[in-house]
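ok so i was messing around last nite and threw this chain in just to see what happens. nothing serious, just curious
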Amino acid sequence: MATAGGQEFVIADHAGPLAAVLTLSIAAALEPRFTVVQETRRAVRQVWLDTFDWRLHAAGLVLRQVTGSRSGELVLATTAGEALASQPAGAQRWPRLAAVIAAGPLRDRIDPVVQARALLPLARAQGTLTLLRVLDGERKTVARITLDVASLADPVAAPLPGRLTLTAVRGYQAAADRAGRLLAAAEGFAASPDPAFCAVLAAAGRSPGEYTDKVDVALPPSTPARAALASVLLRLAGTIEANVGFVVRDVDTEFLHDLRVAVRRTRSALKLTGDALPDGVAARFADEFKWLGDLTTPTRDLDVYLTGFDQMAAGLRAASPGDLESLRAHLAGRRAIERRRLTRGLRSARFTALMAGWRAALEAAAGQPARRGPDIGRLAADRIARAQRRVAKRGAAIVAVTSAGVPPAGDLHALRKRCKELRYLLEFFGSLYDPAVYRRAVKNLKGLQDCLGEFQDGEVQRDAIRGFAAEMVAGGQAGSGQAAPGLTSNELTATLLAMGELTARLHEQQRRALEEVAGRFAEFARAGSLRSLRAPARTARS
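result:
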């Protein structure tokens, strides 16, 4: 709404294009002590922006684009209304990445917050902004008023309360305070109880933090396991459905990441707890979710390479970052091909049938009366204990091998998968456990997971770089000695040498990670997390 920084008032029973009438009402409220003079009035369109997962709001920030007939600006404020930065901007179309915003203080404030996420429109409004000057008896300007009269246009059409902001001119705070008291005493004006952004969200039917990729399902421990598990899986289905449209539109890379995580969690739930669902459900859908996971893997892998490309190239020592530009072009071309395949899959009848059938099966399971079987407290304790034993067994075996040599990469990968399964179970059923115990277990497990993940990422990326090199060499005419299309032989050689340096760095990354595995596993076991989570959920015991 209005530019923040002063006293804010809402105007009762006024909404819509009534700026001229409201200006007269403001002037009448301040008479005879003050005179109100209009400076400008302009029609504007306003768009409030945030990421899909509300990163700006979580950081206490509100970003708004205000566009008139001849000019526009981006305005950054705190959620409490304090102005932070503004800069000229054209009528940018959203969603877009923050990179489209010109460099400057505003961009500097939001870049570390939004990172790789696109800015999406939360709400759009149109109306008028009127700038007024408040003059004292000596005709000196003591304050300025911004009057904002707008109607919401998207996601719904709805009027917004008229709102004005009274800001003191430097040196005239006392006079501005008197003007504020006159407005507060006048009929139809009231000090705003909430920042303007709250009114916009309320009118738009939006709630900050309404999307999260967390599995935030509260499960009473006595709930039948079938119904509780169905609730968790429905939550994951909702995450997949919330992200799929943005994946198809290629809005930002994190939509695909969130979708993939929800698919992996779903597959783990089917594997580890699927027997609690009605007969045949787990078997019926397991292969389809594997298909979905496989469908999304190539594009996500390429996203990881491309988003981290500059950092990867900057770490070169023997080669120059420029030597890798042809690799970047190769990856971008591969991504375009894989994205077309991904988009076809997500738009296919197979995917539509999968999600419709899955949701119907889960809703049926949730609604079935409980006959026999464990409650979710007992099931969670049993499956977490099993997963812990698998982690403990594999971890101990790897530590024993590490003391004498290098364990096979496949064993380390298997331990990582067992750790991930345990982590997913903790996420599904975390509400059943004491929060302090849960957080400690996750923290200790995460340390081991990160170490194993660094080793596995190095293994996968080394193999991928070798594959990319082979593809680039094969891109020329087989047996002709010619370089890949668009590259000279010297350029291709320089790229391949730089890629060789990358694989050497990845090998060193794996070596360092391997050195940490035994220590990380010992920390995890020694912390008591395994023992403390073997007990049934605390509320299930009461």
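not much to say yet. Residues 477-483, 538-542 have pLDDT under 50 and may be disordered.
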